[in-house]
Specification:
Radius of gyration: 18 Å
Structural class: alpha/beta
Strand order of the largest sheet: 3-2-1-4-5-6-7
Strand content: 5-15%
Number of strands: 7
Number of helices: 8
Helix content: 40-55%
Distance between the termini: 32 Å
Amino acid sequence: MYSFKAVPVFVTGAGRGIGKRLAIGFAARGARVGLLARSKAELDLCHLEIEHAGGSALRLRADTGDYEQVTAAVERMRVQFGAYPQVLICSAAILGPIGPFGESNPKSWQEVIQTNLVGSLNACRAVLPQMQQRRSGKIILLSGGGTTPARPNFALHEASKTALIRFVETLAEEVSDSNIQVNCLAPGVAYTHMTDQILAAGERAGWQEIEEAKQVRMTGGVPAEKQIELALFLASEQSNHISGRLIDVRDDWKKLRDKTVNADLYRLRRVQKG
């Protein structure tokens, strides 16, 4: 349905998890995908899967928490693909400390904020000047599972992800005159390395989290196709009228394709139609 033939797409956190899923999904639609991650082994595997399927990808080993490394990666994409990214997907994230906040080590907080929040800010800052000059662009940031309801024992992760949503709402307003759309995608619960981290944490994660993680490990959680389909929509021209929103894979988002979006719908507070 959506074609991204030769469109440069920049994906952070592309080595594993949902970032890898989305990178492979865009490559299957013809996009030239810049794969950014810290692990060489994970990058190599994702790159191999894309190329074996006939896609085009570029490995970009970097730390999103380092702005200079991110800008250098963007420049490498321009040199390799002949154009700057037209689509940015920020997926790089870590869970951070699991357990009661009152027992957490303050030294562990910085890595969570640096990866989940600052890393996304760095990527957005690196691509924005070219998008504004071109007067078009799509930016998609991934949110977390506790950004709307509370999620006990994951305070740092959810605080960093909630901050991202407010950033998206604000940035969307700033760049609206440049025809750049910025949105948050809530991918739902899927089986990733984070699932195993929750199970390994045991009681510190809380019984509800453990039960959900066990179920996700058995079922796989939200199918990759649903996450990819929503990301493709948000990166396409069909969503040019949607910006500054938090859209969940479980939302009835397909009705948004041809309709004006209510001013308060799908904001951070998740105001729904009454």
